[in-house]
Input
Amino acid sequence: MAGLKQVQRQTGVALWRQIADRIREAISGGAYDETGMVPPETVLALQFGVNRHTVRSALAALAQEGIVRAVQGRGTLIERKERLNFPITRRTRFTSGIGDQAREMRGLLLDEAEKEASAEVARWLGLKQGERVIRLETLRQADKRPVSRATSWFPAKRFAGIGQVYRKHESITKAFAELGLSDYVRATTEVTAAHASTGDLADLELTPGAILLIAKAMNTDLDGVPVQYSVSRFAADRVQFTIEN
Amino acid sequence: MAGLKQVQRQTGVALWRQIADRIREAISGGAYDETGMVPPETVLALQFGVNRHTVRSALAALAQEGIVRAVQGRGTLIERKERLNFPITRRTRFTSGIGDQAREMRGLLLDEAEKEASAEVARWLGLKQGERVIRLETLRQADKRPVSRATSWFPAKRFAGIGQVYRKHESITKAFAELGLSDYVRATTEVTAAHASTGDLADLELTPGAILLIAKAMNTDLDGVPVQYSVSRFAADRVQFTIEN
DNA sequence: TTAAAATGTCTATTGATATAGACAACCATA
DNA sequence: TATGGTTGTCTATATCAATAGACATTTTAA
Output
């Protein structure tokens, strides 16, 4: 069933990378669950119609990502195949949403700045362009494995000092609570996908060409007043979103 | 503001393709709306820190996709910059959801088959594994431009002949109506992203390395009985999803 | 009309990608 | 312990990707 011509040449994407992407997907889809191993290099080479060395380049990349581990004489073992699920609902929260899927959740503050709202940020937060906003750059981890990089904006007047509070609690929900906002709801989420930028590659420990799921989200308080606009970038091969209606 | 080092070397993705992806994104994001043109090749080369010829390869690829058109002496004009928006709500429908964003919507039936439900399909449709289901392969277009490839499964007993009906109406909603189901709702949507497979590349007129947004959706009738499970693959650079809560 | 600014074309060179073949090293098992 | 199957390493070669420079062609505007 696994066919011929699954890869294409002269497209700006190296064969070894195309093959790595296919194998990563097959692993994630449970195609090799019976053996817990990837097929032998010679078999893969035949399947994809390429040289064995090209397959080796692909497997080396996957080993670099920690997905497989090659053992001389035995074969190439699958090390990891998880995919976290993020429910997107009116009550979406990062930490609680994946509570039972990981043991340790962390939210690290990478950077904090107060500045004037850009046109886009002002539109989402219902402010005038140029009003003061606080921008937080955060990295979220599940069991010490980076999951998402987020850039969040808050109205500066209402949430002064949110950076420090977030650093203490490692949670937006708790930071809001300490600043007097006991509850909030997710108003809108826009989902797109794109190739990872260089900065995100480093933070999320990805290799170039990797895919991001991008969620632009706006949260409001219970009166419908915007309290947060955020752009979160997720490593696409580690997560999925679920929308329940 | 457009920074340095937006591209990386020796990653299996050619520089010209990385640059093409970035420019396509910038166009889609409205970065060049003032002039309606891409910056001069020499400027782009400086921005990305590469040779002018590498930028030319990227622009040639975008011209091939019909996104830009180079005019000697003038510059490189932007021809097309759409990104369709798909609202995902309880009443999600493909055709009406993007009604005002495109003039002509079509749904082409590529293939139809009746077979036994796999474990995954049975789980989503609430059937026993092995029960009969009808599988439709469809291609959806907006203004003659391919937007998504979908594989849908329906309980065979309830929706016998849905393929023929779909071919006539080019719409799931109308096909349901003719078969006696006047209304239905979206119960669950799972969103992931992945590289396009070879088959999808051809159908969606993409080049290898392209990204897909993948929506696995389950629709039920008003009594909550599953009527359709579908896996839709969208060209990520042509669409975005919006979830309103 | 001229000059500046932009894309188009050509040649040459270097490094990454892919193929090809041979053989070593290691593991499991008959 | 011998054998078959697997990964690891090495050499060599051809093609694609990227850089570099020079100059032609076209458009716009001074």
